[in-house]
Amino acid sequence: MERCYQTAIVILLMMTMPLTEAVAATTAPSAGYAATIKIGKGRERVILLGCKDGRVLYRQPDAPPQAMAAFALKDISGAKIKLPYDRQGISKALSKGNWQAAATTLFRAVRPAVSLLQIRNNDLVPLALRSGTYLMRAGSLKAQGGWTKPARERAASEYKAAYAMLMNVSACTWSSRAPKAKLNAVICLVMMDRIEEAERLLDTVPEHTRDDDSYGLYHLAKAYVQLAKEDPHAAMASAVESVAYETKDLDTFPAALLISAKCYEDLGNWHRARDVYYEVGRLFKKTVWATQAIRRLKFIVAEGHTAQDEQARINKVFFGVEEDMNAKVAEFLGGKKPNADQAQKKEKKKK
Fold first, then answer.
1. 14: number of CA atoms within 13 Å, CB side?
2. What is the DSSP code string of 180-239?
3. What is the CA radius of gyration of the chain?
């Protein structure tokens, strides 16, 4: 009797769905995903095929591919889904700092299963969020940490894909990861030069308190929007708030430091920008943030923006003592120790 009911549902679905959509629903993904779903008070092992119009399409594990059936989405309260992906390949790419390869590999695995994110309490959300953030990092490297139009255009495809993935995660309002996904989506919009959309999306996020897990990220997203609107003073305040109170997300802290350095650049305070970029490069070695910081540090040095000493030296931001930061930066970038003249100069200053 149950099998007849399932067959009837399949026929009804095929009649009511346009041909192209029916084909997509039955063939994407090609073999489906083995899963254990919670429905009512029980659990059932099925092959999930996708979600559409409030229905979850599936087949029994031992049924032929064409024997598709459907549950009402609202009747499923949880799902553990086996998503095959190249863990070793991703790990290898990350160990080499190849975010493009890691992002592409994970995105290709997650994208066909995106519709299944509609199921409440599914376990795909963490992977989907990772996919979005990996794409953002790949995009930031492609843009070389730049905010110019050409830099953003280089990374447009990565940020576009990341935005789409993150918005799907943000729709999982039952998940604690949804706010983080939406705030990262705001950053993606900024980097796609869709500033007004970014501002509107940020306005839909409730004001965060310092007890919220995404407090630092919330202010980082605000800083991105404010900087894009050419308000470096407001952006700096938001970045400082993010840096000062971010304790739960390692990604946010260095990103906020980079934004603060960019604000210093826009304000013409090249020495402070140099100092912050130097610290990011030094503290977060072999990371996407260090790569961006070093590129900007090389630019500042090449342009001679910090060649002249400051009138009032404030090199106590990170070190607490006065030091020759130009010499430290030169050593950091070139792997060389300060020459004798520099060492003598420093010694005279100490006396």
1. 13
2. HHHHHHHHHHHHTT-HHHHHHHHHTSPPP-TTSTTHHHHHHHHHHHHHHTT-HHHHHHHH
3. 25
CB-based burial of residue 314 (10 Å sphere; 0-12 exposed, 13-18 middle, 19+ buried)?
A: exposed
Beta bridge partners of 46: 35
Q: Which amino acid is at 169?
A: V
Tokens 């003073």, residue?
A: 233
Find all residues with CB under 8 Å of 164, minimum gap 6, and list them: none
Question: Are the CB atoms for 152 and 228 separated by under 8 Å?
Answer: no
In angstroms, the CA 333 to CA 296 distance is: 11
The tens digit of pLDDT for each residue in 201-256 reads: 999 999 888 888 889 999 999 999 999 999 999 999 999 999 887 665 677 899 99
pLDDT of residue 143: 86
Contact between 342 and 350 under an 8 Å Cβ cutoff? The reply is no
Which pLDDT tens digit goes with each residue over 96-136?
Answer: 989 999 999 999 999 999 999 999 999 999 999 999 999 99
Interior angle at CA 175, CA 172 and CA 179, nearest 5? 80
In which element (H, E) is residue 122 found?
A: none
81's CB contacts (< 8 A; 6+ apart) are 33, 34, 35, 48, 113, 116, 122, 123, 124
Closest Cα to residue 60, out of 76, 47, 42? 47
User: Contact at 8 Å (CB) between 61 and 74?
Assistant: no
How many Cα neighbours within 13 Å face the side chain of 6?
A: 15
Beta strands in the chain (DSSP E): 33-39, 42-52, 55-59, 69-72, 76-81
Within 10 angstroms of residue 69's Cβ, the number of other Cβ atoms is 22
Question: CA nearest 274: which of 313, 320, 243?
Answer: 313
C-alpha–C-alpha distance, residues 282 and 135, integer Å:
24
Burial classification of residue 180, based on how many CB atoms lie within 10 Å of its CB (0-12 exposed, 13-18 middle, 19 or more buried): buried
